[in-house]
Write a structure and sequence with these properties.
By secondary structure, the protein is of the alpha+beta class. The chain contains five helices and five strands, in the order H-H-E-H-E-E-E-E-H-H.
Length: 165
Amino acid sequence: MRRNRLQRLALRSLRMSRSEMIERGRLSEYKAAARAVFDVWSTGETERLDGLIAPDVVHHDPYDPHGAEGLVGMKRTINLNRSAFSDMRLTVEDQVAEGEKVVTRWRGEMTHTGELAGGAPTGRRITITGITIDRFENGKIVEAWRSMDTLALLRGVGTLERRRG
C-alpha cells in the first residue's frame, strides 16, 4: 500500500510543470519566512527581521502602538512585548499559502513579568491565540494583518480586574 502511494506521488511530480514546481518552492519559502518572524518574537533577535520584512511594511493591527512605523515599529513592538513577557514563546500551529500570501494560525504562551500599558507584572501565565496574514513582494513581507485573542491577554495581565475594581 505504501509503495503504491509513493509511486502515485512520483508520477504526479513527473507530470507537474516547471512553473508549478517553482510556485511550490516559492510558497514554501514564504511559509518559512513567516515562521521565522514568529521565531523572532520568541527569541527577541529583531535584527533577523531585516532579511524578512520590507523597511516600509504596513502592519494592520489596531492594538499595535507602532504598527504604522514600518520595520522599525515592528521591532519596537516586539521589544515592548518581550519586556512585558520575557519568556514569550510563539508556536506556529498551521499555515496555508497561496499566491502572495501566507496565513498562519499561532499560539503564544508567556508569563507576565514586566510592566504593560501601565500595569505592574502579575506573574500570571497567559496563553493567547491568533491568526496573521502576511503578503509578500520580492521575497519580503510588505503587509501584514494580525487578529488575536486580546480578551485573553487583558484578562491575563489583570487589566479587566483593575477596571472593575
